Amino acid sequence: MDAIAECETSYRARSAALASGLQAARASGLPAGLRKTTSNLFRHRQPAPRHRLDVRAFNHVLRIDAERMTADVEGMITYEALVEETLRYGLLPAVVPQLKTITTGGAVSGLGIESSSFKYGLVHETVEAMEILTGNGAIVRCSACQNPDLFFGFPNSYGTLGYVLRLTVRLVPASPYVYVTHTRFAAPDSFFAHLARVCDQASAHFVDATIFGSDEMYITQAVFAGGAPEVSDYTYMDIYYRSIQRKQHDWLTAKGYIWRWDTDWFWCSKHFGVQNAALRLFARPALNSRTYQRVMRLSQKLLPASPGLESVIQDVDVPIARAAEFCDFLLREIAISPVWVCPFKTSLRTYDLCPLIPNQLYVNFGFWDMVPTTRESGYYNRLIERKIQELGGAKGLYSASYYDRETFWSIYDKVRYDQLKATYDPDAMFPDLYAKCVERK
Length: 441
Hints:
Blueprint: H1 3-28, E1 32-35, E2 51-54, E3 61-65, E4 70-74, H2 79-86, E5 91-93, H3 104-109, H4 117-120, E6 127-134, E7 139-143, H5 148-153, E8 162-173, E9 177-185, H6 188-201, E10 206-213, E11 216-225, H7 240-246, E12 249-253, H8 254-258, H9 277-280, H10 289-302, E13 309-319, H11 323-334, E14 339-345, E15 361-372, H12 379-390, E16 394-395, H13 405-411, H14 414-424, H15 433-437
Parallel strand pairs: 1-2
Antiparallel strand pairs: 3-4, 4-8, 5-8, 6-7, 6-8, 9-11, 9-12, 10-11, 10-14, 13-15, 13-16, 14-15
Helix pairs in contact: 6-11, 11-12
């Protein structure tokens, strides 16, 4: 038996065992939950009684098809492991989310994004097929042609319809190096107008941007290169986001570019003190998103919320035509900086739980910090939610949400969601989307 056949046999056996476990959960009357080693959700809840399904072993690359430029992978494989494998073939996933610990299944269940999304869309738009363990205990294969209701209904469902066990993801050619340019702008209008032109021209392989203030904004374009006169290293003492302000041109390895944000969790490593050069000198093994997440989750469990501070951890998507307006609001009312900006183009097809207009250019704003406040709990997060509704945008549901039930279901298609729930999770083995993403039980 060759290696591919062995992987396939192992996957089938493990999938069958997991489906049996879900059937046992149904018989016990307990709701189902995952036992896993990684999570990129930023919501702390008290643990509830659940029948835990152990999915930690679903972390393999089953096959790389270099000719078709696809990868068959299991849902719990991290992008760190997947990128390591695909680069051996001179390939990368079409969209690689920015943190090493994000899993392929998680990036579809939520909405993964990165600087190639202006070309390829969000992560789920680069997936060709999936196998999903649904709440009724079946393993359902789905694609645009096979069980399309589940295929187009699953993205942004956050594990409330089932869990991705296997995916076929699209790959693109990758060169060994990446050449990067940072262009400064001093006003939001010209900044976003140029960002739209860059995306329309599509001459770069990667496009994102960083806002440091209303008069200091940078658009970053990157292209693959076969060689480099020198290579920057942002895995230790040098901090990537600070290089944006001081380097107009830069060269990185392909892997260095893909994980440029991971070393300092964008800029949030400041909360752990490791941007201090003296401390950083001895902290190299801890400079990664995995460490920061563990520390953050431990502090959520053990430490009370800081009085006078509100945690604002948000990614929001705004149509490009309204981006300057949101930028002004964000810098004026929320006063968080830096801000990550990532343009993306939606596909021609509607995904049921993604409240975005097809074939449109959006701008994702990522901002994560503590905001001083004397207001009621959640004031600034609610203010952000109202603003993005006003601008025809949407927010990532990985972070805390404050919508009341009526408002939430005015944004997401409750009729369609209820149809999917009745088909694939009729016994409510998983919580519904509002309960999972908003309620704090």
